[in-house]
Amino acid sequence: MFQTNLAMKAPCMASQVCEDEQRQKKQNIRSLTMSGHVGFESLPDQLVNRSIQQGFCFNILCVGETGIGKSTLIDTLFNTNFEDHDSSHFYPHVRLKAQTYELQESNVRLKLTIVNTVGFGDQINKEESYQPIVDYIDAQFEAYLQEELKIKRSLCTFHDSRVHVCLYFISPTGHSLKTLDLLTMKNLDSKVNIIPVIAKADAISKSELQKFKIKLMSELVSNGVQIYQFPTDDETIAKINSAMNAHLPFAVVGSMDEVKVGNKMVKARQYPWGVVQVENENHCDFIKLREMLICTNMEDLREQTHTRHYELYRRCKLEELGFKDVGPENKPVSVQETYEAKRHEICGERQRREEEMKQMFVQRVKEKEAILKEAERELQAKFEHLRRVHQEERMKLEEKRRLLEEEITAFSKKKATSEIYQSQSFVGTGSKKDKDRKKDQGCRFEVLCFDVRSHETSGGQTDAEGS
Ligand SMILES: Nc1nc2c(ncn2[C@@H]2O[C@H](COP(=O)(O)OP(=O)(O)O)[C@@H](O)[C@H]2O)c(=O)[nH]1
Ligand SMILES: [Mg+2]
């Protein structure tokens, strides 16, 4: 296949010869004719052999509502039962599920990854439904970029999971695109090759289908959604590809069921009123899709993914990191220069931040110091106040004590005088009332003496007023 393609490409290469000659002249390259066989003509064969040995990988992303026929179509496309189980309609978020399979046709091995959007279109709020898909595609680009940037990289053995094509399944409503479809395709078109397909095309009549296709395409154009165009720069396939571009979006029917039509078993969907044959071009565009996707443009889809979508991701990512190809005044800048400039910038930034942090620290310390000083002042004032109160209380107590002592002295004197008086003149006399009063005065005196003593022993802490 590859060799026949090369043979067919030969005439188109002839037109390039003139251009090549002009370029060679500019670059000061001389064309020489060899006098005998050398052998590098086998280079394309070497390339084919190496590719066959290495095998190929192809990654398909299926975006569409649950139950729209994604799994059935993929099974039908690869004539295999991939055993993708039915998914529920009740997932709270959109989730991407990738599954890789090894397929072989003749001696060509294909590592096929099918990525399914589980739960797409099932939530009430579908505003962010496209985000997990965008994130998934970016994550695969990032993984490849990381491998590319490694010092010891092994891109030959690296499992390239970048999405090569997105089959976008549109409901056969016959009306127009849903907002969810427009929003999702708009967010994906710069990241992946989108091939829109009208799913379950057996659910729409032939005349309605034509109008629906026209409507869909005009809506995509008016909303600026870029879908994948089959390439027309290669003369060998330009004709078929441009004819197929006019058929987009393909209206497809999927089925793994075999039905007997005439004397042949064909893949079809059988209804009470008739049979829809999957591989009949009068019934649907399944054959067109398979031809375009697998037989004719699989390599272009892989190439577009690498040269267009991945390149864009890589460029944005490296620019984000500060790498540029040209500096001011359009002068070329080497990676080393960019690295040095970036390092310088980062060092400057770090110093500036360090300085800022130092100043902030000093400021904070000053603020804390002021707060502490204020607290100290308040404490000192409180202490002084308490000391004064304490001193005043002590003075009051001293005063009370002095008064008490005076009273005690006076009382002692009085008592002594009365005893003398009693012993001299009134021995055995005196009314009972007099005797009681004296006894009472004696008791009061005892109590007062006790109070004063206990006050002294407790360091003046007893309530002087109470006593
Ligand atoms: N009418 C019709 N039904 C289909 C078609 N393809 C699949 N189905 C049916 O739609 C249902 C869901 O299909 P499935 O492939 O599991 O959908 P998925 O959830 O998108 O993977 C199944 O009952 C299929 O038989 C189709 O082209 N036409
Ligand atoms: Mg499915």
Automatic annotation (TrEMBL):
The keyword Cytoplasm applies. Keywords: Cell projection, Coiled coil, Cytoplasm, Cytoskeleton, GTP-binding, Nucleotide-binding. Transmembrane segments: none annotated. The keyword Ribosomal protein does not apply. Gene3D superfamilies: P-loop containing nucleotide triphosphate hydrolases. Residues 54-320 form the Septin-type G domain. GO terms for cellular component: cell projection; cytoskeleton. One of its GO terms (molecular function) is GTP binding. Pfam families: Septin. Residues 358-414 form a coiled coil. CDD domains: CDC_Septin (cd01850). It is found in: Cell projection; Cytoplasm, Cytoskeleton. Filament-forming cytoskeletal GTPase. Septins polymerize into heterooligomeric protein complexes that form filaments. Belongs to the TRAFAC class TrmE-Era-EngA-EngB-Septin-like GTPase superfamily. Septin GTPase family. This is Septin. It comes from Chrysochloris asiatica (Cape golden mole). The gene is SEPT10.
